[in-house]
């Protein structure tokens, strides 16, 4: 089968102003199938934007290449770029122009004009659901609306492949919902391929056919959610918020040995205390267990017997957060 994107051995080395070098991307290879939503998931600074910028021909790889619909982005850039639409992380619009004028302007850059341009602009306004606000200046729009115009610009020339770089950052939950729905619509109704980047596990989880987890410029895991979570085994995590007590190792050992399906129990001490009205930040016990829900009452009993005050309980099935934790020893959220 022919892939929509075939990236192989991408490396990017940036020069800092002081002359030292930083290898932001250290050899990334990935294939994206036609019609799939593929996510790059990774923390701030992982190399997501750098990767997308190389695949979209915005910056030149230090090493490696990417093929878009079979065309090399370094050697056949014009043919490759014709297939793709790019929605950049930073909003790139003219604030003093209306939504419609912005779309017309960018459409002309793509070589559209006359009736065809008008038709495409109408289509895109409809798609991003801003037909009724098309005459308003963009600087009167909410963050979510600006994001939608930004997405619209990337769709004007009817690309087969769309890159979206963290399109939901800094907007309210309702606007985010609309953008996620837009991504599904691109795939399901327009048969487009989407490369989506995010640092939010929940988004990658909800949207993607496949996910590449990226950290320090490298892919550390790639696959469907099921394939990725299998790497961490079948274990659920039981999360207990426990007030401000310090938990003794002996208690954690007790949880591990007395509850059958429990493999490990960890305690995170409060990292800081605040003077905020005497409020302190609670500690957290994480218990790994084969069948979390079944183990839960037994774990609670052990904690109760030790007089541990539990303020909340949560059962998490294996998710991408757990995969990241497993592979890096760090939490995905900062
Ligand atoms: N133009 C540049 N010059 C020097 N260093 C850069 C440049 N662009 C990015 N970097 C560095 O490369 C690394 C990767 O950055 P990149 O923007 O690709 O990460 P990201 O995953 O997109 O992060 P974020 O989630 O914050 O958008 C970072 O350490 C960043 O500081
Ligand atoms: Mg970025």
Which tags fit this structure?
11 helices; binds magnesium ion; four-stranded antiparallel sheet; Rossmann fold; 334 residues; alpha/beta; binds adenosine-5'-triphosphate; 34% helix; six-stranded mixed sheet; 2 domains; single chain; Alpha-Beta Plaits
Structure summarized in a few sentences:
The protein is α/β, with parallel strands linked by helices.
Describe the structure.
With 334 residues, this protein is α/β, with parallel strands linked by helices. The protein folds into two domains: 5-230, Rossmann fold (3-Layer(aba) Sandwich), CATH 3.40.50; 236-317, Alpha-Beta Plaits. Helices cover 34% and strands 26% of the residues. It has eleven helices and 14 strands. It has helices spanning 48-55, 77-82, 99-109, 114-127, 143-155, 173-188, 201-207, 225-230, 249-258, 292-305, 320-328; strands at 5-15, 21-32, 37-41, 63-68, 71-72, 84-87, 161-165, 193-198, 210-215, 218-223, 236-241, 262-268, 284-289, 312-316. The strands form three sheets. A six-stranded mixed β-sheet has the order 6-7-8-3-9-10, with helices on both faces. A four-stranded antiparallel β-sheet has the order 2-1-4-5. A four-stranded antiparallel β-sheet has the order 12-13-11-14. Helix 3 packs across helix 4 (114-127) and helix 9 crosses helix 10 (292-305). The longest helix has 16 residues, at 173-188. It is elongated. The two termini are 38 Å apart. 36% of the residues are buried. Mean pLDDT is 90; it is low at 273-278. The structure holds adenosine-5'-triphosphate and magnesium ion (MG). Adenosine-5'-triphosphate is lined by residues 14, 16, 22, 24, 42, 44-50, 89, 199. Residues 48-49, 89, 165-166 line the site of magnesium ion.
